[in-house]
Amino acid sequence: MRVTISRKAHFNAAHRLYRKDWTFEQNDAIFGKCNNPNYHGHNYELIVSVTGEIDPETGFVMDVKFLSEIIKEEVENQFDHKNLNIDVPEFENLNPTAENIVVVIWNKIRKKIEPQFDLEVILYETPRNFVTYKGE
């Protein structure tokens, strides 16, 4: 039996959507108020789901405490109360759109999860706007 377990998390972060190789006018036309040179912030909500076989000895797919520790180490500690453009190395040359953020998070967590498990990450930028990534 394959079962999915999920863990919710939360972090606050600022960012600016823009391309360094575009003029301010080009950035403003595409990214609008998200191109604010003084940045803007979000209260991100994260759902990380792991799917796999139930271990007959423990009854777990994975210990949720272990998943929680991975999320804290790889996401919360590195992203919470940070300016993504300035403080998070992965976004030095990558526009921190919700789409790019969810892929970065997925890649960070994927490295810590055994390959027999499927991984899905859902990132809510606002209560109405969210993205999902399951890997390539």
How does this structure look, described?
Belongs to the PTPS family. QueD subfamily. It comes from Flavobacterium urumqiense. It is an enzyme of class 4 (lyase). With 136 residues, the chain is an alpha+beta fold. It has one domain: Tetrahydropterin Synthase, Chain A. It contains 4 helices and 5 strands; from the N terminus they run βαβαβααββ. It has a 5-stranded mixed sheet. β4 and β5 form a beta hairpin. The chain is elongated and about 60 Å long. The mean pLDDT is 97.
Structural topology:
Layout: E1 2-15, H1 24-31, E2 40-53, H2 64-79, E3 82-83, H3 84-87, H4 98-110, E4 118-124, E5 130-133
Parallel strand pairs: 1-3
Antiparallel strand pairs: 1-2, 2-4, 4-5
Strand order of the largest sheet: 3-1-2-4-5
The percent of residues in helical segments reads 25-40%
Strand residues, percent: 25-35%
What is the average per-residue confidence, as pLDDT, rounded to a whole number? 97
Question: What is the helix/strand order?
Answer: EHEHEHHEE
What is the end-to-end distance? 24 Å
User: CATH top level?
Assistant: Alpha Beta
Q: Judging from the principal axes of the Cα atoms, what is the shape?
A: elongated
